[in-house]
Structure formats: C-alpha cells, structure tokens
Amino acid sequence: MPANATAPPRTDLNEYEDYARLGALLTLQQPRTDAPAELSFLVVTQIMELYFTLLRHEWESARDVLTRPGADVHRAVRTLRRAHGAQDALLASWEALRTLTPAEFDEFRDAFGVASGIQSYQYRHIEFLLGARHPRALAVHEQTPRIHAELAAQAAAPSLYDAALKLLRGRGFAVPEGLAERDPRTEYQGDDRLVAVWRAVYCDQPRHGDLADLGDALFDTAERHVRWKQRHLLSVWRSMGDKPGSAGTSGAQWLERGVHRKYFPDLWTVRDQGWA
Ligand code: HEM
Ligand SMILES: N[C@@H](CC(=O)c1ccccc1NC=O)C(=O)O
C-alpha cells in the first residue's frame, strides 16, 4: 500500500460475502428435526429452487428474444444452451439424495406435514414455459390467492414454443395464423402442419440452419426436463416406495403418468419419419 494511502475502513462484511449475500443465504438451512438426513433433503430442495429461478430467467429471455421482430435466433439458441448447463447441474443434484432410505426419510417426513413439491410455483412456471397448461396446476394454489394470481398471469403468457411458432410464421413458413396467435392459456397439442414445417427446416439446413439449431435446442431442453422427472420418480421409488404423497396423491404412481410427456410435441413427431 502506498505510504500516503489511508487504510480501508474496517467492516463486518467481506466483499465476497456481500456479493453472494451469504448473510441471508446461509441463515436458510434450518432442518425441523435432528434426523441426520434432513439437511441434505432441505439443501437439495433449495438448490433445485435456485436452478428453477435460473431456468425461468433464461427461458423467459429466450422466449422474448424469439418474439421480437427480426429475432436474433442465434442469441436465443445460446441462451437455451446456457440453460442446458443449468438443467444438467439440476439433474446431477439428485445424486445428493441417492442414498436416502425409507427409514431415514420417515425420521423427518412428518415434520413437513402436507408440504410437497407439487406446491412449487417456480416448477409450475417452468412447466408453463415448456407449454404445459393443465388447469389442475392452478387448482393446487386456491388457498393461496397471491401465488394463484401470479401463476394465473404466467399461465396466460406465451410458452417458448408459442414464440417459435410466431418466429416460423414471420420467416414465411406455413404456420396458420390461428396457431401463431393462439390463446396461450390452452395447451398446444401438436399439429401436422407444424410437423411439416419442421421437416422443411431440417431438410434444408443450408438455408435454415439457425432454425434447425433452434429446433434442436428446444428438443434438448424438453429431453432434459423429462430426465429430471424420471430421476425424481426414481428417487421417490427409492425413498418412499409406493406410499401416498404428502400432497395426497397416490405418490409414485401419480408421478409415473407424467414422465412420458412430450413437451413441444411437433419436435418429437417430426422424428417419426425423420428427414433427408
Ligand atoms: C426423496 C425425495 C423426494 C420424494 C420422496 C418426493 C416425493 C414426491 C411425491 C410423492 C410427489 C407427488 C405429490 C404428492 O402427493 O406429494 C412429489 C411431487 C413433486 N416433487 Fe417431489 N419428492 C422428493 C424430492 C423432491 C425435490 C428435491 C424436488 C425439488 C424441488 C421435488 C419437486 C417436486 C415437484 C415439482 C412435484 C410436483 C410434480 C408435478 O406436478 O408433476 N421433489 N414429490
Ligand atoms: N411429496 C413428498 C415431500 C416433498 O416432496 C417435499 C416436502 C417438503 C419440502 C420439500 C419437498 N420435496 C420436494 O420439494 C412426500 O410425499 O414426502
């Protein structure tokens, strides 16, 4: 330090702690029991919620980029690819729960009562961005009007795929206006005309390479999400077998119905026949 410099003022906070807001963050890991495995369950839940925050941010940003006139498709694809890294890390987070036995889980399961991941509004928002719009998703939040209202607004906003439909129409593909301007509150079920559009994109990649990249990035996003759901189901089978869930569902059997879902259905259907 130069002789004439004054020493920095003494403070309780170092710069790293300040930037990462550790003062707030590290007060939040408070298990409700003394069960040794509860901290891992709580921390993994919090970590996953943080990744949900990140995915919401990236996917909303990709969607908004795609919706702008003269969309920078490359930028949206880069954003989706960055989010793939977050999805991979989110998936790997299940590893920290891989040894949780039913006996260990039972030691703290009563402590959270009817709390359940089904109430995760960030997860629901993510599903909305992926195009899932099941009315039951909102019904879970009827007792909590603040959450219900926020989710209802998100359920009325376009999904990533809605943005892609608009983009494809803007680029001159035969996307019917009724699809490009559809009401986002209803679930898009897939449409043969869009399957034909994606086939045209994939068949002429020298001309439509950016759109083919977008199709691949969206497919990879969907596939990673399905893998998260599959790992969740395996964790449920491992840690609680086929007992009913804390939210009152049948548990693993209820979750099993959702793990085969094909988000962005046209991108899966176009694979039935493939392309040259
Ligand atoms: C071993 C650990 C876990 C078990 C045994 C478990 C169990 C369950 C069960 C049985 C359900 C069905 C709903 C119910 O009746 O409660 C459920 C739903 C759900 N869980 Fe978990 N869970 C575990 C960990 C996690 C973690 C770490 C997360 C991440 C935040 C999570 C997020 C969710 C979500 C989002 C749902 C709703 C899924 C949907 O609506 O399709 N779960 N969980
Ligand atoms: N549905 C789980 C519990 C559960 O998922 C949960 C409960 C409280 C806090 C976090 C949870 N898990 C994932 O979010 C169960 O039936 O035990």
From TrEMBL:
This is Tryptophan 2,3-dioxygenase. The keyword Calcium does not apply. Substrate binds at residue 109. Binds 1 heme group per subunit. Gene3D superfamilies: 1.20.58.480. Pathway: Amino-acid degradation; L-tryptophan degradation via kynurenine pathway; L-kynurenine from L-tryptophan: step 1/2. PANTHER family: TRYPTOPHAN 2,3-DIOXYGENASE. HAMAP family: T23O. Belongs to the tryptophan 2,3-dioxygenase family. InterPro entries: Trp/Indoleamine_2_3_dOase-like, Trp_2_3_dOase. The keyword Iron applies. One of its GO terms (molecular function) is L-tryptophan 2,3-dioxygenase activity. Keywords: Dioxygenase, Heme, Iron, Metal-binding, Oxidoreductase, Tryptophan catabolism. It holds the Pfam family Trp_dioxygenase. Coiled coil: none annotated. It comes from Actinocrinis puniceicyclus. Transmembrane segments: none annotated. Homotetramer. Heme binds at residue 232. It catalyses: L-tryptophan + O2 = N-formyl-L-kynurenine. GO terms for biological process: L-tryptophan catabolic process to acetyl-CoA; L-tryptophan catabolic process to kynurenine. Its EC number is 1.13.11.11. Its cofactor is heme. Heme-dependent dioxygenase that catalyzes the oxidative cleavage of the L-tryptophan (L-Trp) pyrrole ring and converts L-tryptophan to N-formyl-L-kynurenine. Catalyzes the oxidative cleavage of the indole moiety.
